[in-house]
Amino acid sequence: MARLAQTAGLTDIQQEILSTVRDFVDKEIIPVATELEHRDEYPQQIVDGLKELGLFGLMIPEEYGGLGESLLTYALCVEEIARGWMSVSGIINTHFIVAYMLKQHGTQEQKDHFLPRMAAGDIRGAFSMSEPALGSDVSAITSKAVKDGDEYVLNGQKMWLTNGGTSSLVAVLVRSDEGHSPEEAAAKPHKSMTTFLIEKEPGFGEVRPGLTIPGKIDKMGYKGVDTTEMIMDGLRLPASRVLGGATGRGFYQMMDGVEVGRVNVAARGCGVAQRAFELGVSYAQQRHTFGKPIAQHQAIQFKLAEMATKVEAAHAMMVNAARKKDSGERNDLEAGMAKYLASEYCKEVVEDAFRIHGGYGFSKEYEIERLYREAPMLLIGEGTAEIQKMIIGRRLLEEYRFQG
Fold this sequence. Notes:
Layout: H1 12-39, H2 44-53, H3 71-84, H4 86-105, H5 108-119, E1 125-128, E2 144-148, E3 151-162, E4 169-175, H6 182-187, E5 193-199, E6 205-208, E7 211-213, E8 227-238, H7 250-286, E9 288-289, E10 292-293, H8 298-326, H9 332-357, H10 367-378, H11 385-399
Parallel strand pairs: 1-4
Antiparallel strand pairs: 2-3, 3-8, 4-5, 6-7, 7-8, 9-10
Helix pairs in contact: 1-3, 3-4, 3-7, 3-8, 4-5, 4-7, 7-8, 7-9, 7-10, 8-9, 9-10, 9-11
């Protein structure tokens, strides 16, 4: 085995794309990632490079100027990018989810209007479900859209927007009780939610009338990429900016996007874990104690063995979830399992690499310190471990229903 986490059955085109991305990561991302992360600086030069490679249009159909590649190809590219710096993969992911939702659920006018510019990277996407008091209970959304003639007026506060400042298009989920009585909306809240497409200027402050993006949220890790709130106060949107052209479908549209997003988060976990293993196995061969490299001590070899096995297992589950989605089958079980396992294993592999580094792992001069702060975000993003377990448990009960 020359390298961990190899994927069997790839086409020549897929292998060429991955080789190009891996080379870009090794040359353009890894050498500067830690410095940019410590400054919390947006990686504009890296993003411009990814734009030139066509990564922003990787899964957008060729008819709209994209590459028309599969979710598997995209996930493997994300894995490579996260190996270099997880924040960069986040910039790509939110853009991809919005493009995917448009491709799957948008009207023809919406596809024609947005997808070509998204494929070129001229429009950057962000999506928003969460709110300050919401957590994982999407049914408790309070942001609301009210119809006013040919327009909708949106009010409410949203939270945790990746690309909130740098994006120019936000897909936002709000409550819209149009066509539902208060009793119906309370009994079936998911049926009274709508996704709106908000075009805005990049930046902070009031980015269009009725829409404000406050400054970046200061985070423990996952720096460089901007994470923000979004405040809608009398924001007016035409009916043509309802995703798919009909209200009441937003929850299901968003869940479809989040499902592929979970494959993406699994891929990020795989990439960060791979990098942590690379750092750990390299350091273990350079650091000497008791007259020999620490890699020759059985305790360290045990750690390396466990780390490599976890990297392999997480990668295999991520690939399986992506291929299941590409086949057109339901993959919420596989995506939930992959996201859960990859994020948990990522945390454990990073911590073991941190332990191998000893005291130096606590120093900001060493890359593992950055990974140690980044890994926890994966335990939360696109649904916590507890949410994944709920999804997995419910699906298992559907598949293994007791026949008594």
